[in-house]
Structure formats: structure tokens, C-alpha cells
Amino acid sequence: MSGAALVVEVLVAFFLALFLLHRYGDFRKQQRMVLFATLLAWFLCFLIVFTLPLDVSTVGETVPSCPIHINNHALAPNVCIKPWSYIPDGILPVFWRVVYWTSQCLTWLLLPFMQSYARSGGFSISGKIKTALIENAIYYGTYLLIFCSLLIYVAVSPKLNLSWSQLQVIGITAANTWGLFLLVLLLGYGLVEIPRSYWNASCHGYLLAKTYFKAAKLMSEKTDAEENLEDVMEDVRHASEAIKYNHPLRKCIDTVLRKCPTEYQEKMGRNMDDYEDFDENRNPCPCKKNLVKLHKQAIYAVQRHNRTQVQWQMLLDEAFHLEDVAKNETSGTRHFVHSFPSSEPVGWVSSYVYTPTIEWYWECLLRRWFYRVLAILLSLFSVVVVWSECTFFSTQPVLSLFAVFIQLAEKDYNYLYIEMACFVTIFFLCYCVYSTVFRIRVFNYYYLAPHHQTDAYSLQFSGMLFCRLTPPLCLNFLGLIHMDSTISHQQRQQTAYTSIMGSMKVLSFIANGFYIYYPMLVLLLCIATYYSLGTRCLNILGFQQFIGENHMTSDLVDEGRELIRRERRKRQRTDDGENRRRDWREQYRERREKYMGRNRNAYSELKESHDSAVNSSTFAPSSGRDISDHAELLQDVEPLDFNGEDTPDSEDRRFTGGRYLSTSLSRGRIFDDV
């Protein structure tokens, strides 16, 4: 089983990153390099988080003296039982080195460049590369300035001698310092907001009011996106009319047109006359620089319009579901009824497992209590994290609760408990930080929208944040459990991860000051988040936020309620129309089948009567007069024309008995007798 745990965690990290990328990205429309870079960044970060508990437990497995008690019998002092998660020596250092430096190259070099490349409106690869290099010049220059400042500090210090390993430590320290600064901000928000969000989710009235508030804001954003798209499409139409088919920039405008929605492409195609020759003195044509800018605006406008449309439909479904829950709570049948049943066929899960009765118990009774219990547990865990962040620098006595738990497990060499405790702790920290990354929104430039509506820029920006936050998060976790000697100042065996990070003593003011005391600010950030200071400040600045008792919030909730009521009536009318059409088609099908069956019966009766008449005429003796009558009738009847050609005497052919001889008249003269 050597290395089996590492292989399992690699697979779990990969499929988790693939699932999130499928939820937020679009495999069919977005560029393959963008998807691959984002997937690689997320995968490496999840892999670091999942593998670090194995690294912590491996430190205990390599202790030279580890007496193990099995069945109350003590084994020899130098005999250790290797657990199933044991990783051989030499694998983890190489593993951490490859994973860490790959993630750092992604976040500081490749992803910023690809971010500008994907957002560029250039029409060629060289043009996009040039734009990306220009946009990242200031970005890379800032990093170079910080690195040079730290390098000068080390060079001036008389006690330090520069070497390649020390240069690596300086670079790692600079990256971790930037990441820790952002990490504490996100962690302070997530430690309070995540338990509170689960507690608010148990309050149905609060959740429904917030949904109405979101509907009002999203409708405003949806209207702005539609107006912006109309303006951009109007500019594209003017450019398309100015640039004719023989213009050198016609290929560029065709590229812009392919990025437009289908209905706009058809409209522009109908209004455009490409058969007119190009005349330089007739209409001023936009230059290539303006077309690049127009191309970028078109991509952004179409992406924003599609995102708001999908989000509006998802929000409507959520609002209708919450209103259905409110109606079903007062139902005495204990049978959940949907206002708009799904058009998809019912699967075996809905038929046998998640039946309407079980759905009623979950939605109307059990769900609120489950969320409340979960919120209480997460709140307790958040309190433990805040306490440990403020006291992890104390080693005598040990005040960090996570360090106490790990040291108790080390005394009994309970490797499974060490791994589980480390995994639960670091998983909670990552959930608080990463969920905040998925929740935050920087206007319309960075926004992770589910249902495949996230643009390439936001995907790559999230990959950059993950790669910058994960290494300092892991170092902070090792400091909480006193496994980092730089912070705990204890002489003990280091993990393979800290050996790759190097000794932070090269920059003592960061190792002994910033890394120890800056995480204490998480307490102040938690207090600010608890009282919603950031939300109130944004509301004062004009960004509408959901605040319980506020006049603007009440107005937006009322507006959203009216919008949802209007959309409900519209969807109800649409469903009623579909039901009427479906009933009409069924009735028409029944009448048609009944009519066809009646015709088949009449035809069979007529055929039987004809066959009987033929048989009687064949076997019964006939007189000469009957034979002559039959001959006269056959002479009067003209041959039928089945080729559809009209004959002069083919009109209005009617015989005695009120029957037509032939009803297959030509199509051109079928209504001549009307």
C-alpha cells in the first residue's frame, strides 16, 4: 500500500477541480488553453491541501523511537508499524518542489499573461500577445521592484551572505507575504459569514425576502446588459456598413460579426449591401485600432448579456420554489406540490427515493433544523480557529487548541487521528477562504457565475488567487499546530513542505513579526463582519446591499416581489397555452383516428360488396341484354388519367347515383367550379 494514499488524493483533487470547472466554465465555447490553465491551477491547490495531512503524519512515522502498544503488549522501542498512508522517504520533497514551483509559475507569470491575452480584442495571435505584454508591463514591474527591495535589504545586512538558496527564500517570502495579507482578509470574512449564511438559510422568510431583493437588482443589471448590447451592436452595424467586401479590413469585421448573437447577424445581413464597391472618399471607415476595441466590447457585451439571462431564469426557479415551500408548509396532505412541474421525465430517484412525501418532510420540516445544527457546529469551529490564530505563538503553555489535539495524538502515535484532525482543520480553513473567493464580485470585471456563465478572465483570476493563497494558508496551518519551527521556535523534525519553503530567518522582521502578529487581525475582521460594517459602508456609497431594516432594502424587496409575481403570471399563461395546444392535438388525433377507422370500415364493406357482386356475375348465367348493358357502360367510361394531366372532358364528371367517377382532379383547376 506504499503511496496508495497519495494516488487516491491526486485523483480526488483532480475530479474536484474538474467538477468545479464544469460548473463555472464552458467546455464548448471557451478556449482550451484557458480551461487547461485554470484546471491545472485549481488541481495543484487542492492537491497541496489534501496532501499536507499525510506530510504531517509522516513526521511522526519517522521518529527513531516509537513504542507501539498492540493488545496491551509493548513492542520494541525501534520498531514502528507503518500505516497504509505511509509515503516512502524522498517522494514528498520532490513532490512538493514540483507542485509548488509549478503553481508559482502559473500565478505570477503564465496566468496574468493569458488573462490579458483572452481579454484582448486583437484579430491575430501576434496582436493579442503584444497587447498582453503591454498590459502586464506595470504588473511585472511592481513585482520586480518588491523583489529588488528585499534583495537590497539582504545585501546590505552584514550578517547575511547571498546565495542561490537564500534568493529562493526571498522570493518565497515575498510571495507568501502578499498571500498572507489577502488570506487574513478573506478568512476573517468567511469565519463569520459561512455559519451565518447557513443559519439564515434555515429562516424561510429571510431567504424569500433576500431572493426578492436579488430579483430587483438582477433585473436592473439585466436591463443595463441589454441596453449595452444594443449600443455595441449598433456600432458593429455602422462599421459593417462602412467596410465593404473589398476593403482590407473586411476580415476583421467578419470576425466581430461571428461573435454577435444570431438574431443580430441575420438583421445585419439583411440590411447590408456588399455588392457596392469600396470608395475611400465616400464613407469614413474605422481604423484597425477602433475595430480591436469594438471586438473587445462585443465579446464583453455578449458574455454579460448571456450571463444575466441565465441568472434571471435560475433566480426565477429559486423564487418559485421558495414560494411553493411557503404554500406547502400549511398543507395538511404532507405532499409537496410544485407550481410548475418539471418537463423532464421522472427518474427512479424521484419515483422511489425522493418522493413528494419525503420532499415535503425535507423542505418543510427537516431542512431548517439541519441547517441550524450545521450553523452551530461551524460557529464553534470558527471560535476555535480565531482563538488559535490569536494564541498559536505561545508554546509554553500551549494555547492553540489545534496544537493540543495534535500533540495528544502524537503521544499515542495515532496516525489516523492525526491525519483526520489535520484534514478537517485545513479543509475548514480552505472552505472559508475559497468560498469567499467564489462569492466576491469586483463590479463586472471579476465574477464567478455558476451554470457555465463565467468568462475566461474571471476563471484565470480565480486560479491566480488560489495559487497565491494556498501556500501561506498551509504555512499558517502548520503554525497553528506548532509544526513550523520558525514560528514555534521548537527543535523538532520539520515536514517536507517547510523544508521546501526554506528558513524564514533570512528575513527576521517577517518571520518574527509579520507572520506571528498579523494573523491576529482576523479577530477584528470577524467583529467587523459580524456587525456588517463592510455591507453598511457599501450601502452608504450607493451600492445597494441587503440590510434587514432599511428603507431602500424594503423598496427593492417590494419591487422584486412584484417582478416575481409578474413572471409567475407570464409563465402560467405560457403553460396554459401549451396545455391547450396539447389537448387540442390529442383531440385532433383521436378524431382523425376515428375518421380513418370509419373510412377503413366503409372501404372494407364496399370491397366486400364489390367482390360478392363480381362472384355472382361470374357464376350466375346472364342474359344477352345484361351483357350488352355492360358493354355500353364500358364504352361510355373514359380511362382515368393518373399523371395529373387535364383533359377537356375531365371537369365535373358526375354520374347517376350521386357519386363521382374520380376525385383526383388536377391541382391547378381544383377550385374552378367554386
UniProtKB/TrEMBL annotation:
It is found in: Membrane. GO terms for biological process: adrenergic receptor signaling pathway. Keywords: Coiled coil, Membrane, Transmembrane, Transmembrane helix. One of its GO terms (cellular component) is membrane. The chain crosses the membrane at residues 6-22, 34-54, 98-117, 137-156, 168-192, 369-387, 416-437, 514-533. Residues 612-621 have a biased composition (Polar residues). Residues 599-658 are annotated as: Disordered. It comes from the Eukaryota. It is a multi-pass membrane protein. Belongs to the LIMR family. This is LMBR1 domain-containing protein 2. It comes from Denticeps clupeoides. The lineage of its organism: Eukaryota, Metazoa, Chordata, Craniata, Vertebrata. The gene is lmbrd2a.
